[in-house]
Design brief:
2 copies of one chain form a homodimer. By secondary structure, chain A is of the alpha/beta class. Chain A contains 12 helices and 16 strands. Chain A has helices at residues 2-9, 54-66, 76-86, 102-117, 134-137, 170-190, 216-226, 278-287, 298-313, 316-337, 366-378, 403-418, and strands at residues 23-27, 30-33, 38-41, 93-99, 121-125, 153-156, 195-200, 230-234, 258-261, 272-277, 341-347, 350-358, 363-364, 381-382, 384-386, 392-395. In chain A, the strands form 3 sheets. Chain A has a 7-stranded mixed beta sheet, with helices on both faces. The longest helix of chain A has 22 residues, at 316-337. The radius of gyration of chain A is 21 Å and the shape is globular. Chain A starts with a helix and ends with a helix. At the A-B interface, helix 1, strand 1, helix 2, helix 3 and strand 4 of A face helix 1, strand 1, helix 2, helix 3 and strand 4 of B.
Chain lengths: 420, 420
Amino acid sequence: MIERRERLLGPGNPLFYDDPVHLVRGEGVWLFDRDGKRYLDCYNNVPCVGHCHPAVVEALCRQAGLLNTHTRYLDEHILDYAERLLGKFDASLDRLILTCTGSEANDLALRIARFNTGGEGFICTNATYHGNTAAVYQLCSIFRPFEGYGEAVRMVPWPDSYRALNGLSGEALADAYADEVRNAIASFEANGIRLAGMMVCPIFANEGLPNVPPGYMAKAIGYVREAGGLYIADEVQSGFGRTGHWWGHAASGVVPDMLTLGKPMGGGHPIAGVVGRGDLIDTFRRSEMYFNTYAGNPVSCAVALAVLDVIEGEDLVGNAARVGQYVLRRFKELEVKHEIIGDVRGTGLFFGIDLVSDAKAKTPASAEARQIVNRMRHKGILMSKIGEHDNVLKLRPPLPFSEENADLLMTTLDEALAAL
Amino acid sequence: MIERRERLLGPGNPLFYDDPVHLVRGEGVWLFDRDGKRYLDCYNNVPCVGHCHPAVVEALCRQAGLLNTHTRYLDEHILDYAERLLGKFDASLDRLILTCTGSEANDLALRIARFNTGGEGFICTNATYHGNTAAVYQLCSIFRPFEGYGEAVRMVPWPDSYRALNGLSGEALADAYADEVRNAIASFEANGIRLAGMMVCPIFANEGLPNVPPGYMAKAIGYVREAGGLYIADEVQSGFGRTGHWWGHAASGVVPDMLTLGKPMGGGHPIAGVVGRGDLIDTFRRSEMYFNTYAGNPVSCAVALAVLDVIEGEDLVGNAARVGQYVLRRFKELEVKHEIIGDVRGTGLFFGIDLVSDAKAKTPASAEARQIVNRMRHKGILMSKIGEHDNVLKLRPPLPFSEENADLLMTTLDEALAAL
């Protein structure tokens, strides 16, 4: 099957695990392979309401059997969805443009920022990924694109709470990091490049989920805005309850000028979008043609509405907060027990476990992280790894994850760590 | 409802017709509004197998209820689909990369061409649209992006078979147009810009469906390849039987180096992709990370497989060729009867009717085209208009369109034209 993949799809299509999993069925937090083996899904955020949630599948099938067109005809689904979704943000964020993918949403948000500011330059972090279009790849610091980076990009160190610079902490650390943003702005100015904005995931999901130094975001974004730039929060990973709040930016205390949504938005169905301030969106839309054939179609919107219904009906935001606290506590117990765990970080149901081969030197234990992820897969738990050094265990289960699920995860992870 | 759209989605969201249609149900070639009024769909190519085809809906629902993940786990749907799809192309086109939208596919194809050629410059026509990402917008000649066009783009006149330059025809006309491509290449060379390729819809769908002068494509692409560039056929509109062949490039006699697919691929479900030569795709994939969360997921591939099943099972390619011939003959009858019809063009089930206010001067009758489209909507026929002057009636019904459907279209269009 891997040979067939290479022959039809070409090389380099990423596959999880040294021994890849062939899945055939999903239900709630569970996945099943073709031999009937059951896996606890501790990785997938797209099926945020659980795999194949009956209410989502039902909405999909009902609407797909009735009508599936595009937004050049009138339809209520997109309006009902926009109204409900926008109601969950600060009142300043009052417009929605739907796309099909998070990459399309980020590509569009960059254009809207450039249009409104007249600027070119964007700031991102030095260990991030925002999507796969040519324009968005310019902000991809974890995979260098063959085009190289243009002069309109500056990458600033992500606010690493664990391997902090110069032993700083608290406000001093926040200042040190925020100063990097100020330096990036100064560097743009020195090169005659006008700032358009900063795009950042408000929980630094790709960077490895640091506990962001308090005040960092407000200070960094303060500098950006002072220089005429916009704050675009990439909420493709952090949105829809993942953090125990509806949105990842909630905890940072800074309301973005625009934010982008994706992955969990349709529970697996391709729907994504840009939410933004009316003044920014409207001036753009008045001047520029933007149409997306599939985006906002009745089926996508019916599915996205069902996802909202389930998140609210099953209080999945509350569950992410409650069970997230429980999981974090249990991880901290493992941290005490296993020296290889250097740091445990997380928010809601999104966790990073930083493995180190030397606790003092905080040497990233990348090989061991890989071993653990592969062992867990054989023990029936699906998870992955992230971070600048690929040594951070990444856990991000569907939101209906329970304490019982967490207990199974802990027992299994405890065994896998003990067997290292 | 229009006010609600503006308030939630911003201004400038395109809507069809002066009196927009509020659709609630679709079935085959028919659409129904909320008052139960029935419309013959003579416009939509996305539901190529007909609206809400039961076999497509069934495949969607079955797979959505079983499993919907991503390609980092093994799954047979994507492989079965790739095998069947690639079997429908020249043997040189042996790799598939799936995306979610045609825009993503075109964005990716441009990157792959740049990577493989080491070039930057692209040629497109002067009346086209290839999608909505920042990179693809650089090739959009019908809506000028606010960024302007970079120096790596040259737009050549589209091969206008009706308003031909200098009264040329046949080979001489083909040469005149192909020379424009040669000039564009020379202009790149003169400016030190290396050619990456030419992106073109093989049936010039956005340009107004000209009867392309014989030999034009072979000559133009010959120049492109001689200069080290690649031919990317944008088959987002022309693919999947629309032309009475499986692919739009079939009639041109030139096999592309890459081609992009979209709109009808999933009958409304967001799935799209790049098909290309193995050498081009593989060198790119070996060097560059490309992952697309939703693309190639089991649900999308199950749907796309069902679309192929229906196209084959109902011989929709043959139907497009046969009924297409019939429709074209009937349009030619109307052309004789109504002086406003300057030219009737088409291929398979895709037609352009060029309206002129002065038959000799071929003056585009843009206002009348708008009137006709709006009148037809009130008479229960949905169609649109295109072209450099927005005066070309655009007809592109779902592929199960029958002679009986065509007869209704003709009678109604005859009445609308008579009432002008």
